[in-house]
Amino acid sequence: MNVYETIKVALSAIWAHKLRSFLTLLGMIIGVTAVVVIVALIQGFNAYVDEKIANIGAKSYSIYRFDFFKDFRDTDTLAAAQRRNPELTLEDYEYLRARLQLTEQLGARVAPTNSQVKRGTQTLDSVPVWGTTPNIVEIEKTDIADGRYFTEGENEVAARVCFIGADIAEKLFPYEPAVGGEIYIRGIPFRVVGVQARYGYVFGRPPVDSSITIPIRTYIRTFGPPVRNRWLYFIGKAVSDELFNDAVEEARAALRLRRGLRADEEDNFGIVTPDVIMGARDRIFGPIFIVAIAVPSIALVVGGIVIMNIMLVSVTERTKEIGIRKAVGARRRDILKQFLVEAVTLSAIGGAIGVLLAWLLSQIVSLYVFQTRLSLLAISIAIFVSGGIGVMAGIFPAWRAARLDPIESLRAD
């Protein structure tokens, strides 16, 4: 019997017991679905982090009030850091900007304040309003869909201009161009100078598309100076990749000098680089990835055991058929191949259904949570693993069927 005929017989046997076959595959389907969805989520998250780093630039770094990987270990450490680390100020920004030689550009950004935004009868509540320096658009490689970013001159005079996200433009200017229009932020009129290109959902929210950015000096005049819930941070871009580490150390030394720190005192601020972000991601999500894959893999093992049991039942039910086949010339390896192919086919069908369900779930997650990544490699591995489990689950029942005595098999009821 050739492979085609063997697969045909296997499919016929599976189709003859549709409900039993489906129930047999449930463990395999659930296990494959869970594993593939988890892989898609983790790959999507990793891609998001990589994309953010790529957008900011591999030669960019950020300076914060806290070192997020040291100061947030526990409440006591954070309380000590709050006492030790002063807030960053615009004076710090101007000091660094004037002295850093290896940093091509240094920008500043204030964490957003949620504000009410109005235009005509349309009102939007809790809209994040950021304050930035004009050069942030170049440092972060911001894509502009229409208009422009605000200028240094507009920042210096604290002009009431704003750069809005795609969702804000769509809601407040549904039938006309947003650029040149006027909106009210906390009752204060602002002229729209640009609209950012649509960014999409991240973890269930469109933070960029539903936010507004204004010049940092306008922000301070409107909302007051940065405080604990509106913290200021800096973003620097090194002159070259080769001098990136030197640029970071130059910025560290300059801020330590400004704050009068002795050589034996630790930094009272934090500097975040792409390498630090990637390392933290790997340390945090590496173990989580292993556990997340290991737990649903138990369902695959259970599915394999169920397939083995059903195949043993199938051998018992088809003992007479095996005897007849051996009586007309079938060899042991033909019987072995038949039942082994049937187990692998059954398992592979479960794997294929699991991959299809995983793809559907991934699409739903991409629409409402964040963009997932379902790679062809993950799909191939899932189907290969399910087939491999089918081999392991079917080899004993197939071996048992192949060793049946034809005379005794023919006497079976």
From TrEMBL:
Ranges for domain ABC3 transporter permease C-terminal come to 294-406
Matching entries from Pfam families are given as: FtsX, MacB_PCD
Residues annotated as domain MacB-like periplasmic core: 21-253
Name its cellular compartments: Cell membrane
Q: How does it sit in the membrane?
A: Multi-pass membrane protein
* GO terms, molecular function: transmembrane transporter activity
Report if keyword Protein biosynthesis is assigned: no
Matching entries from InterPro entries are given as: ABC3_permease_C (IPR003838), MacB_PCD (IPR025857), Macrolide_Exporter_MacB (IPR050250)
Cellular component aspect of the GO annotation: plasma membrane
Membrane-traversing stretches: 21-42, 284-312, 339-362, 374-399
Q: Per UniProt, which keywords does this protein have?
A: Cell membrane, Membrane, Transmembrane, Transmembrane helix
Q: Does the keyword Transcription apply?
A: no
Homology family: Belongs to the ABC-4 integral membrane protein family.
* Protein name as annotated: ABC-type antimicrobial peptide transport system, permease component
The protein's organism comes out as: Pyrinomonas methylaliphatogenes
